[in-house]
């Protein structure tokens, strides 16, 4: 007899099922009062097609790129979605098989080719995917969908039409990821993966399956360390307990201040206990690169986002929005036009309830001050998982 351990968020898997794009925007059922000033579009990216014919995709970043849009105007809301016409998507739909290798899914030569054609296909090298499902961001007046490769796709944020594919290798030499931050001076800040390549592969695999204590930590990096004495704490800021100690070999040992800590994960005897803070956001419009107080993000319970969190990074006070069997997306902060305080605005998040047959998904609008619900706009279709996005006024 096979014994199975049921995951407490088993219904979450339904948001990893393929869906169809919409021929036109559909109206949403609005409850509550949407602020009159909130007029714009919430744009989100994520996977929407998780198999081609009988061939499944095996990685979260392999599902084909689907662009979502909630339009808000005069208290009314519509929802629309379309697949990005990338080379990976168009060729897969044409040949009815996976044509371009993705992150966790290998593409194989066309079985209809003869043996010599398949042989040369292997030696042409792996074609890099342009499946831009991770994020969308503006460059000037244009909008681009992107992923973890050197290709981005220009899209129309109004019609969701695909305009053109852009390859960084032929335009600019740059190493970057899909999460970019643009400040008030139009500088773009990005991040880079650093892979630790070792001969001892077994140790790397062991590190990959560990689940450390879920915490939000503040590290303080001293800028001038050349005149400091050994063994001294270089942090002199009065509002933090984080330390940076000069070592005898010239390195600096950092100890963080824990701002937000969830309980340890337990996966023994059908007990689940995991709570962390992910997908952080702040009021980027006014506090980008400045001393901010509030951060917003998702609370992850047993590796599944099931709540929206607000954190005061100075006092460590927290606020929570949560609803049974509901799974929100990354909350985006939108500042009110006459804002005086840092948290004067709303949070926008797409929430799915896989166990509900009618109106299983909705756009949630929260008061960013205390995370109370202002309004929601429910739709009659399931919305697959989304990764990142933006609010376009």
From TrEMBL:
<dbReference type="GO" id="GO:0042574">
    <property type="term" value="P:retinal metabolic process"/>
</dbReference>
<dbReference type="InterPro" id="IPR004294">
    <property type="entry name" value="Carotenoid_Oase"/>
</dbReference>
<dbReference type="Pfam" id="PF03055">
    <property type="entry name" value="RPE65"/>
</dbReference>
<dbReference type="GO" id="GO:1901827">
    <property type="term" value="P:zeaxanthin biosynthetic process"/>
</dbReference>
<protein>
    <submittedName>
        <fullName>Retinoid isomerohydrolase RPE65</fullName>
    </submittedName>
</protein>
<keyword id="KW-0408">Iron</keyword>
<dbReference type="GO" id="GO:0046872">
    <property type="term" value="F:metal ion binding"/>
</dbReference>
<feature type="binding site">
    <location>
        <position position="388"/>
    </location>
    <ligand>
        <name>Fe cation</name>
    </ligand>
</feature>
<feature type="binding site">
    <location>
        <position position="185"/>
    </location>
    <ligand>
        <name>Fe cation</name>
    </ligand>
</feature>
<comment type="similarity">
    <text>Belongs to the carotenoid oxygenase family.</text>
</comment>
<dbReference type="GO" id="GO:0050251">
    <property type="term" value="F:retinol isomerase activity"/>
</dbReference>
<dbReference type="GO" id="GO:0052885">
    <property type="term" value="F:all-trans-retinyl-ester hydrolase, 11-cis retinol forming activity"/>
</dbReference>
<keyword id="KW-0479">Metal-binding</keyword>
<dbReference type="GO" id="GO:0003834">
    <property type="term" value="F:beta-carotene 15,15'-dioxygenase activity"/>
</dbReference>
């Amino acid at each position: 007899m096979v014994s199975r351990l049921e995951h407490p968020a088993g219904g979450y898997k339904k948001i990893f099922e393929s869906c169809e794009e919409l021929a036109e925007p559909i109206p949403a059922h609005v409850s509550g009062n949407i602020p009159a000033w909130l007029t714009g579009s919430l744009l989100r990216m994520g996977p929407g097609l998780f198999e081609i014919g009988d061939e499944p995709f095996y990685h979260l970043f392999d599902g084909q790129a689907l662009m979502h849009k909630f339009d808000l105007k005069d208290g009314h809301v519509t929802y629309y979605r379309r697949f990005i016409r990338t080379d990976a998507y168009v060729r897969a739909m044409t040949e009815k098989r996976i044509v371009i290798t993705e992150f966790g899914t290998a593409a194989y030569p066309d079985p209809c080719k003869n043996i010599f054609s398949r042989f040369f296909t292997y030696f042409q090298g792996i074609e890099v995917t342009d499946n831009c499902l991770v994020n969308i961001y503006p460059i000037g007046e244009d909008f681009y969908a992107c992923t973890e490769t050197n290709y981005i796709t220009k899209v129309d944020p109004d019609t969701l039409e695909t305009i053109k594919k852009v390859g960084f290798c032929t335009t600019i030499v740059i190493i970057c990821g899909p999460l970019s931050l643009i400040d008030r001076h139009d500088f773009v800040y990005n991040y880079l993966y650093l892979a630790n390549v070792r001969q001892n592969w077994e140790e790397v695999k062991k590190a990959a399956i560990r689940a450390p204590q879920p915490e939000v930590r503040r590290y303080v990096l001293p800028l001038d360390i050349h005149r400091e004495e050994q063994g001294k704490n270089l942090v002199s800021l009065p509002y933090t307990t984080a330390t940076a100690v000069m070592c005898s070999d010239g390195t600096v040992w950092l100890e963080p201040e824990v701002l937000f800590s969830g309980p340890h994960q337990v996966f023994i005897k059908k007990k689940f206990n995991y709570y962390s803070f992910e997908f952080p956001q702040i009021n980027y419009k006014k506090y980008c690169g400045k001393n901010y107080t509030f951060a917003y993000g998702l609370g992850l319970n047993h590796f599944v986002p099931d709540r929206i969190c607000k954190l005061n990074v100075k006092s460590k006070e927290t606020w929570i929005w949560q609803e049974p069997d509901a799974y929100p997306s990354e909350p985006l902060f939108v500042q009110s036009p006459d804002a005086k305080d840092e948290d004067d605005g709303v949070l926008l998040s797409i929430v799915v309830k896989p166990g509900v047959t009618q109106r299983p998904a909705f756009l949630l609008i929260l008061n960013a001050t205390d995370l109370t619900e202002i309004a929601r706009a429910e739709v009659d279709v399931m919305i697959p998982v989304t990764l990142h996005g933006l609010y376009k006024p």
